[in-house]
C-alpha cells in the first residue's frame, strides 16, 4: 500500500510531484532563513541595508537566474523585445505593487518578529496571490479560461492555509497578552502587536501581486528554454519592478533621516556586503526553487495553480521554526506553544491537501 501522501499523485508521476514539493520546501527554508544574516549587519540604518540586500535579492541573482532560461545563440534582451508588450508592462507593474509589499514586509518583522511577522504577511499573500492571479488574467484574457484553474480543491487548499495562518495569529495574540512589556522587547526589540498586524496584512495584500506578475509573464520564455527555468525571466521582471519601488523609498529615507553616511563607513562594508549578499541569495532561492519545483509538477494542474500558496505556507512554517530557534517565543505558556504547533501542522497538511482532493 502506498503512503497516504502519495495517493492521487498520478501513478508514475508521483515521484516527480514529491521531488517538486521537496524543491519548493528547500526554497521556502532558504527564504525563511534570509532575515537571519541581516542580524549580523553592523552600523547601518534599515533603509541602507534594505537597499543593498535588495540589489542582490531583486537584481543580481534574479538576472543570473533568468540567464539560465536563455538557450545558446539567444540573449535575454531579445526575449523581452520580441515578447508581448502588454504582458511585459503588466509583469513590471505588478512587480512594483509587490515592491510596496516588500517594504512593509520588512517592517512587519520589525514590529512582530520573524515568526509572527512572516506568518501574517505570508498567509495573506498566499491566499490573495493564488486567487488573484487567475482573476486578473481573466480580466485581460477572458477567452483563455483562467478561472477554471480555481477548482474546488484549490479553493479548499487556500481556505485551509488561511485557517492555519489564523491559528498562528491567535498564538501571536496570546503571546502578546501573556508577556510583560520587558519580555516582549527582549524577544523583539520594537515589538508592537497592533501596529505590526496592520502592516503585516498590508504587506500580504501587496505581496500577493508577485504571483500575479509571474502569471502575466508566463509566456516570456523561449520555446527551447528548459522547462525547469521557463518562469525565471518573468521572476526577474517582477523583482525588477519591486526593486524600483524599494529603491525610491530607501533613497528617500536616506535623505530624510540623513543616513547617506552609512555608505561611506568603510570599516563595515566587508561584513555588511557579505551578509547582504547571503540574505539576497537566500531570499531569491524561494522563487528559484518555485520555478524548478513547478517543472516537476507539470502533471498536476491543481498543484501548479496551488504552488505559490504551498511556497508561502512553507515559508510560514520555517519562519516559525527560526522564531523558536531565535527565542522569539521564549516565556510563552505551554498553551500558546500548543496553539502555534497546531497552526503549523494545519499549514503542512494544506500543502498537499488539494492534490488529495483533486
Write up what this structure looks like.
The protein contains twelve helices and no strands. The longest helix is centred in the N-terminal third of the chain and has 56 residues, at 85-140. It has 358 residues and is mainly α. The two termini are 20 Å apart.
Average pLDDT, rounded to a whole number, is 84
Largest sheet: none
Structural class: mainly alpha
Share of helix, binned? over 70%
Number of helices: 12
Strand content: under 5%
State the total count of DSSP E strands. 0
Overall geometry comes to globular
Low-confidence stretches: 1-7
Key terms:
single chain, 358 residues, mainly alpha, 12 helices, 0% strand, globular, disordered N terminus
Summarize the structure.
This protein is mostly helical and 358 residues long. 75% of the residues lie in helices and 0% in strands. It contains twelve helices and no strands.
How would the blueprint of this fold be written?
Blueprint: H1 14-33, H2 46-67, H3 76-82, H4 85-140, H5 152-178, H6 181-187, H7 193-207, H8 209-216, H9 232-256, H10 266-296, H11 301-325, H12 334-357
Helix pairs in contact: 1-10, 1-11, 2-9, 2-10, 4-5, 4-7, 4-8, 4-9, 4-11, 5-11, 5-12, 8-9, 10-11, 11-12
Amino acid at each position: 500500500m502506498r503512503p497516504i501522501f502519495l495517493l492521487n499523485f498520478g501513478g508514475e508521476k508521483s515521484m516527480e510531484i514529491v521531488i517538486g514539493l521537496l524543491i519548493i520546501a528547500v526554497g521556502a527554508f532558504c527564504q525563511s532563513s534570509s532575515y537571519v544574516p541581516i542580524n549580523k549587519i553592523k552600523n547601518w540604518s534599515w533603509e541602507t541595508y534594505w537597499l543593498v540586500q535588495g540589489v542582490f535579492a531583486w537584481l543580481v541573482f534574479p538576472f543570473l537566474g533568468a540567464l539560465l532560461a536563455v538557450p545558446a545563440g539567444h540573449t535575454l534582451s531579445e526575449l523581452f523585445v520580441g515578447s508581448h508588450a502588454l504582458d511585459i508592462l503588466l509583469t513590471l507593474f505588478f512587480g512594483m505593487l509587490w515592491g510596496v509589499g516588500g517594504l512593509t514586509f520588512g517592517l512587519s518583522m520589525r514590529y512582530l518578529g520573524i515568526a509572527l511577522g512572516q506568518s501574517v504577511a505570508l498567509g495573506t499573500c498566499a491566499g490573495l496571490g493564488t486567487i488573484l492571479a487567475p482573476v486578473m488574467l481573466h480580466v485581460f484574457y477572458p477567452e483563455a479560461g483562467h478561472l477554471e484553474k480555481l477548482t474546488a480543491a484549490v479553493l479548499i487548499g487556500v481556505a485551509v492555509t488561511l485557517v492555519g495562518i489564523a491559528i498562528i495569529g491567535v498564538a501571536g495574540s496570546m503571546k502578546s497578552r501573556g508577556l510583560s512589556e520587558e519580555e516582549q522587547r527582549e524577544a523583539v526589540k520594537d515589538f508592537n502587536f497592533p501596529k505590526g498586524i496592520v502592516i503585516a496584512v498590508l504587506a500580504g495584500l501587496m505581496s500577493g501581486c508577485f504571483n500575479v506578475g509571474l502569471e502575466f509573464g508566463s509566456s516570456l520564455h523561449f520555446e527551447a528554454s528548459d522547462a525547469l527555468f521557463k518562469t525565471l525571466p518573468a521572476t526577474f521582471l517582477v523583482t525588477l519592478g519591486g526593486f524600483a519601488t524599494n529603491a525610491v523609498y530607501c533613497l528617500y529615507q536616506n535623505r530624510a533621516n540623513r543616513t547617506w553616511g552609512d555608505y561611506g563607513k568603510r570599516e563595515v562594508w566587508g561584513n555588511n556586503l557579505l551578509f547582504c549578499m547571503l540574505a539576497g541569495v537566500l531570499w531569491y532561492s524561494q522563487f528559484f526553487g518555485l520555478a524548478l519545483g513547478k517543472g516537476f509538477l507539470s502533471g498536476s494542474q491543481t498543484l501548479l495553480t496551488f504552488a505559490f500558496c504551498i511556497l508561502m505556507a512553507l515559508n510560514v512554517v520555517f519562519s516559525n521554526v527560526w522564531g523558536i530557534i531565535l527565542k522569539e517565543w521564549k516565556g510563552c505558556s505551554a498553551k500558546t506553544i500548543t496553539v502555534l504547533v497546531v497552526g503549523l501542522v494545519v499549514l503542512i497538511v494544506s500543502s498537499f491537501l488539494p492534490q488529495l482532493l483533486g
